[in-house]
Design brief:
Mean pLDDT: 91
Radius of gyration: 19 Å
Shape: globular
CATH superfamily of the largest domain: 2-enoyl-CoA Hydratase, Chain A, domain 1
Number of domains: 2
Low-confidence stretches: 1-7, 87-93
Number of strands: 10
Strand content: 15-25%
Largest sheet: 6 strands, mixed
CATH architecture of the largest domain: Alpha-Beta Complex
Helix content: 40-55%
CATH class of the largest domain: Alpha Beta
Number of helices: 11
Length: 268
């Protein structure tokens, strides 16, 4: 893996850019392997809310600066709580869980561009994305049992529903790392590519996802996630289906099909 030029820059909260229908969130604490601080969670939460209220945004890419995608939530916060003899609070852990769940629930397609290894809670952050592309030589590690903690409910559900019981047990109960090829085999990664090719592949994937009908994407994404979690809202699905059938986008799709051209969707 190559080292990004951003490595020499200062550590900051995530860098957010929105242009031409695409939002990009870049974790930007390379000296700390992009560990997630409380301030980072605030930026992520606010960004996800902004994206969901901006119909011009059609796709989101989450990536990182430097050699690691992210080392997860700042373990120093756990150490400080232990030193102060404080019980595991709802606020710190729940805020991370809330942010990850918010990412999973976004109406638009989301892509994790893993330019380096991923650890701890960041493995769930990436898992909450719809698609994950990684680079050769990367690895992942879920160290919950090494840290003496039980993971939060929705994170366990995501691991089991998306990777299967066997993979979830292996990752959680052994706390041993796995390499990129194994990450792809168990379904954590959709593709493993050379580092130099990652962003070109991500760009192509983002462009293709953003070209589809927004209303249909949102409805199908929500339904698929609900089915995976065992809680499909059939009434909401019926409403979404009815809305799509009378939408301008559906009419445009039919017209474009008959005219043998690419449709131009407006999300209406």
């Amino acid at each position: 893996m190559t080292t990004s030029a951003y490595d020499i820059g200062p550590s900051t909260v995530p860098v957010v850019t929105i242009a031409e229908g695409r939002a990009t969130v870049r974790l930007n604490r390379p000296r700390e392997h992009n560990r997630l601080e409380p301030d980072d969670l605030t930026v992520l939460r606010e960004t996800f809310t902004r994206i969901d209220h901006d119909p011009s945004v059609r796709v989101l890419v989450v990536t990182g600066t430097g050699k690691s995608f992210s080392s997860g939530y700042h373990i120093g916060a756990l150490i400080e709580r232990e030193a102060e003899k404080q019980p595991t609070p709802g606020n710190a852990d729940d805020s991370f869980e809330t942010v990850v769940n918010r990412l999973e629930q976004l109406r638009i397609p989301t892509i994790a561009a893993l330019q380096g290894s991923v650890y701890g809670g960041a493995t769930d952050l990436a898992l909450a994305c719809d698609f994950r592309l990684g680079v050769e030589g990367m690895r992942m590690l879920m160290p919950a049992t090494r840290l003496g903690i039980i993971y939060y409910p929705s994170g366990i559900e995501r691991y089991v529903s998306r990777l299967g019981i066997a993979a979830a047990k292996r990752l959680f109960l052994t706390a041993e790392p796995i390499e990129a090829e194994e990450m792809q085999r168990i379904g954590y990664l959709d593709a493993v590519v050379p580092a130099a090719e990652l962003m070109a592949r991500v760009d192509a994937l983002a462009e293709s996802r953003a070209a589809n009908a927004p209303l249909a994407l949102a409805g199908l994404k929500r339904a698929i996630n609900e089915v995976a979690a065992g809680r499909l809202d059939r009434d909401a699905l019926a409403t979404a289906r009815a809305g799509c059938s009378v939408s301008e986008d559906h009419a445009e799709a039919l017209k474009a099909w008959s005219e043998k051209r690419k449709p131009v969707f407006k999300g209406q």
